[in-house]
């Protein structure tokens, strides 16, 4: 099923890209002067807007969904306005826009490096316990995102037979059970001993995930236990900084993101890192 969806989405992008190229070629044949830079801006902007439209059909609405279009629409506008932006206010607007994109690219680069360096392979992590951070569920079923996190936790548990696992997450809107209970059910169904799974069913955000889970582990293993945590790869850095801000020493293990949400989640996480840094939450 996942392969079929990949092919469908890839097909839409290829069709749209080719259609844009043909349109640009026809306009040039009719005598319209379109530079390579204009064509590049239009193609990139159109692909980013299309990405938002596709993800809107496949995912819940959030900031990450609209960010590609937020960056794509100005590029489409530049493609049309660029020949007229050599004088006055439009010249200022051109360079101001270029500066904004340059700053954004620097932020993306720095945040990308931070996200990557915070990740550790599950096989290399030594810990007495692993916390699985919760994510939305459908009714009482784990989602693809949460399934990836749980699978990564199982890799850790297989390599550390004496370790325990805290599954952390309360009950949100549209969920018939707590995220923790759905996660525990999934792990048990996949062969993990129920005695090794400690549900934490109160947390509603990352701060509470760590705070409440640490309380459980302190009672079970003592305050000096080494702790790892599993979350989706893009979220490892920010989650670790949230834990550190509470005085909790943890090591992050990345779970694979849903492939068609990678760009959206990366952009949203960059915004999240900047907001947390500017507001002193780190």
Structure characterization notes:
With 282 residues, the protein is of the alpha/beta class. The protein has helices spanning 2-29, 36-58, 63-81, 88-117, 144-159, 179-189, 206-221, 236-245, 262-278; strands at 129-133, 137-138, 141-142, 164-168, 197-200, 227-232, 250-255. It has a 5-stranded parallel beta sheet with strand order 5-4-1-6-7. The longest helix is centred in the middle third of the chain and has 30 residues, at 88-117. The two termini are 40 Å apart.
Low-confidence stretches: none
Radius of gyration: 23 Å
SS-derived structural category = alpha/beta
The count of DSSP E runs of length 2 or more, i.e. the number of strands, is 7
Specify the number of helices.
9
H and E order: HHHHEEEHEHEHEHEH
Oligomer type: single chain
Keywords, separated by commas or semicolons:
282 residues, alpha/beta, 7 strands, 11% strand
Write the layout of secondary structure elements.
Layout: H1 2-29, H2 36-58, H3 63-81, H4 88-117, E1 129-133, E2 137-138, E3 141-142, H5 144-159, E4 164-168, H6 179-189, E5 197-200, H7 206-221, E6 227-232, H8 236-245, E7 250-255, H9 262-278
Parallel strand pairs: 1-4, 1-6, 4-5, 6-7
Antiparallel strand pairs: 2-3
Helix pairs in contact: 1-2, 2-3, 3-9, 4-9
């Amino acid at each position: 099923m996942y392969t079929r969806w990949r092919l469908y989405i890839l097909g839409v992008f290829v069709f749209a890209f080719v259609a844009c190229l043909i349109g640009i070629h026809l306009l040039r044949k009719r005598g319209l002067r379109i530079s390579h830079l204009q064509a590049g801006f239009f193609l990139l902007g159109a692909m980013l807007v299309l990405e938002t439209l596709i993800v809107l059909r496949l995912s819940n609405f959030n900031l990450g969904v609209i960010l590609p279009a937020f960056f794509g629409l100005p590029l489409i506008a530049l493609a049309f306005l660029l020949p007229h932006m050599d004088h006055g206010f439009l010249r200022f607007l051109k360079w101001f826009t270029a500066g904004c994109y340059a700053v954004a690219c620097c932020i993306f680069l720095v945040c990308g490096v931070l996200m990557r360096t915070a990740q550790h392979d599950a096989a290399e992590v030594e810990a007495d316990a692993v916390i699985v951070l919760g994510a939305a569920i459908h009714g009482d079923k784990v989602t693809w995102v949460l399934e990836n996190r749980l699978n990564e936790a199982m890799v850790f548990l297989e390599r550390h037979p004496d370790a325990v696992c805290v599954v952390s997450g309360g009950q949100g809107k549209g969920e018939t059970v707590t995220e923790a209970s759905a996660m525990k059910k999934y792990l048990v169904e996949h062969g993990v001993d129920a005695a090794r799974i400690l549900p934490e069913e109160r947390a509603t955000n990352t701060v509470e995930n760590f705070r409440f889970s640490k309380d459980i582990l302190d009672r079970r293993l003592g305050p000096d236990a080494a702790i790892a945590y599993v979350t989706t790869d893009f979220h490892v850095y920010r989650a670790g900084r949230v834990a550190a801000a509470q005085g909790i020493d943890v090591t992050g293990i990345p779970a694979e993101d849903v492939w068609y949400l990678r760009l959206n989640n990366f952009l949203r996480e960059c915004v999240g890192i900047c907001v947390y840094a500017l507001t002193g939450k780190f």
